[in-house]
Amino acid sequence: MSEDPKKAATTGQDKMLTSPEQQALINEMRRLIGPQSGKASIFCSDACISRYLRARNWNVKKAAKMLKVTLKWREEYKPEEIRWEDVAHEAETGKIYRSNYIDKHGRTVLVMRPGRQNSKSTKGQIKYLVYCMENAIFNLPPEQEQMVWLIDFQGFNMSHISIKVTRETAHVLQEHYPERLGLAILYNAPKFFEPFFTMVKPILETKTYNKVKFAYSDDQNTKKIMEDLFDFDQLESAFGGNDDTGFDINKYADRMKEDDKKIPAFWTRENTPSSVPTHVPSLDSTRLDSNTDDCSDNEKLDSFPDLVVDTGIINPNQKSLVNEGERKASAD
Fold this sequence. Notes:
Layout: H1 8-11, H2 19-33, H3 38-43, H4 46-55, H5 60-77, H6 84-91, E1 96-102, E2 108-112, H7 122-138, E3 147-152, H8 163-176, E4 181-187, H9 193-199, H10 206-210, E5 212-215, H11 220-229, H12 249-267, H13 324-331
Parallel strand pairs: 2-3, 3-4, 4-5
Antiparallel strand pairs: 1-2
Helix pairs in contact: 2-4, 2-5, 4-5, 6-7, 7-8
Region (Disordered): 269-299
Pfam families: CRAL_TRIO (PF00650), CRAL_TRIO_N (PF03765)
Organism: Vigna angularis var. angularis
């Protein structure tokens, strides 16, 4: 759906810039960060620089500062060098994995099941998350740059809540993977999770926060939203789909090992300029509600592109795919 450009400044949307204007800012960013070589040169494509600019609302100085911090982090952390063997122990329970299907916008899907947490190590959990992020990005189609998070709360209890892990997750994702999360769907989150989510909202940027949507299996509107986003024959039954296959750690390990073999070639390829995708999914591009054509982003309860924790400050009940009051009413 389209948005009135006059509303852009007040709804948290990016500035409305023409392609020549965007390219000029990208060129200015390149001047500020200076010449890059090796993996940094490959990383700093036009599309990448554009994401950092959008994350900072096209403020070149702020975006350049942000990108420089990421380049330093990547040089030290070396996320592209993490391999399956380094994180396999974190993956055993299926708490995070890349699904074998994409959504109808071509976005890769990370399935998360916090109720299957099997580690007390914040460092280990973040390392595995980074590995999953890198793998999801690696498997994106050329015209797409965002992913979807499907978060299943089955088996989740208070013992799985960690402010420390949440804070570190938000930091890594917002600072080093800007504009990579298109939508995060929190499926059947328990009632006690909502106050926690409200409590951590200060560490989430507005864009990230606005990408987080609550969904409930007993709500008809949720079912319609999921049908708009996914092929139900591929979507797992835990999210209302028809696939009952389930997670198989051995098959998943084989998939990841095959991907790992391809990674070195990607980071040693000849560095050719990468153009900015012609279509960048936004809250407008994923219809989650049939009555959102004339709504601002803060009023849309239905669309969503990425969630690794981007930023937004709102009552979860007001920013959910399904309004809690309506959900209770329909249940009655």
